[in-house]
Amino acid sequence: VQPLHFYNSLTKKIELFKPRRDEAVRVYHCGPTVYRRQHIGNMRRNLFADFLRRTLEFSGLSVADVMNITDVGHLTQDDIDAGEDKLEVAARERKMTPADIAGEQIKNFFADLEALNIKRAQHYPRATEHIEQMQRLIHALLKRGHAYQTASGVYFDVTSFPSYGRLSGNKLEEMAAGHRVDVREEKRHPADFALWKIADPGHVQQWDSPWGRGYPGWHIECSAMSLAYLGSAIDIHTGGEDNRFPHHENEIAQSEGATGKQFVRFWMHNAFLNLKGAKLAKRTGEQITLETLTERGYSPLAFRLLTFGVHYRQIMEFSWQALDAAQENLASWRQLLRRLRELSPPDDAEFKADPPVVAAFLRALSDDLNTPSALAAVMGYMKELNKKLASGKDGLSAAAAGGALLTLRRLDQVLGVIEPLEHELTAESVPAVVQRLAEERETARQAGDFAKADKIRRQVETMGYVIEDTPTTPRVIRK
Ligand code: AMP
Ligand code: ZN
């Protein structure tokens, strides 16, 4: 296992990462608010989560991860400013129910993840399906003296939690000066925040509770679902920079207030994706989504590659020129892969992955997820390969080409670009009948019908193709 170092937003230092327990690393990611399609800034955030997860796995650790889906309540800073539940507003405007809008957006969300080759988390719990867990947590906070009830709901008492402000560096005295208290809420301190809100009759999403019919506050869902799926003490919690305050500060107060244990060891936050110098925001301004990119003829993988080239704590200034360059890179990667696949013999089992570039790649990633430096190692390696290929017939032997392919596939465990490119190459070169036979064979194989699987394999071979079994999906290539 390669030692990993990450910047911890809580201590403001790069620290050696060690999981709390020997089993899987437990990671919680703040997820999408599903009233509108996720934009490419949100996708930058999701790619950061994916690079992190794949790096943990690449280094030899296993990961248990959860990303919540916010389908009720105010959550982001955007919403706090606007003061209204985004799902309720969208539902009213589009004459749909909040549940229908959430359903539609969750579908888009998963389609976008898939197009970007982002690995699925183990769980995507929805807030509306965990009201009970949230209420239990609120109950515990009331019992432990961290919360109080008013006519408008239940509030967290920030003065009851001495380390409030540790993550964000905000001081209670300053917050008291900077905020005005909404008189209707009857809060004791301006920084106190809602755990449960009593609903107006017009509010569509509302549930019974011991404190009156209403809906959960802005932050309680993450404390409740993290506890439900990962336990009281987790390894890593991630989110975009805007999640740090108040959202994550409040999560810490809620979780630690209720359990008395340190909630999270490592807090990791990605910087924003900006457009013309300003944060791309879901609530206002121009919306660029993955759909916008594909409509303009870009591959989602070009965006993945572009994002990999920027360190997650660096602002990513989006431009179409930068995306053009990534798309061009992708085209040359595809070309290189095509050449290597043509050269290499189909049975590559005997080749070993090339250690120096793999080691350099992992070294970069283990240094606070330095993806730009990891990418530079890959590009350098590809440049060497291209040079050898250009130097004529004996530039790269079949064995060396096979070894190079294996190496690239290994690096791709984090990059996540090579495999889909190879998939494209395979799809473009293998006739549909052969592809279908390969799928039939795989079905037979999984059903334990090896006689049939073998028969199909021989049939495919007489047609001039071989089926290779890879750890993921079987690959068909020309003999
Ligand atoms: P939302 O769907 O607005 O609740 O946001 C989902 C996640 O995306 C949160 O973790 C945000 O911090 C993150 N996020 C929102 N806007 C951006 C942006 N422009 N760049 C990077 N991350 C963002
Ligand atoms: Zn959250």
Describe the structure.
The chain has 479 residues and is α/β, with parallel strands linked by helices. Helices cover 48% and strands 14% of the residues. It has 17 helices and 15 strands. The protein has a four-stranded parallel sheet with strand order 4-3-9-10, sandwiched between helices. Strands 5-6-7-8 form a four-stranded antiparallel sheet. It has a three-stranded mixed sheet with strand order 12-11-13. Helix 5 (131-143) crosses helix 8 (244-259). It is elongated. Zinc ion binds at residues 30, 222, 247.
How many individual β-strands?
15
Lateral arrangement of strands in the main beta sheet: 4-3-9-10
Write down the overall mean pLDDT: 91
Which segments are poorly predicted (pLDDT under 50) over 5 or more consecutive residues? 75-82
Strand content: 5-15%
CA-to-CA gap between the ends? 38 Å
Which structural class matches the secondary elements?
alpha/beta
Shape: elongated
What is the number of helical segments per DSSP (H or I, 4+ residues)?
Answer: 17
Estimated radius of gyration: 25 Å
Helix content: 40-55%
Q: How many strands, what sense, and barrel or not for the largest sheet? A: 4 strands, parallel
Cofactors, ions and other ligands in the entry: adenosine monophosphate, zinc ion
Key descriptive features of the protein:
alpha/beta; 14% strand; binds adenosine monophosphate; binds zinc ion; 4-stranded parallel sheet; single chain; 479 residues; 4-stranded antiparallel sheet; 17 helices
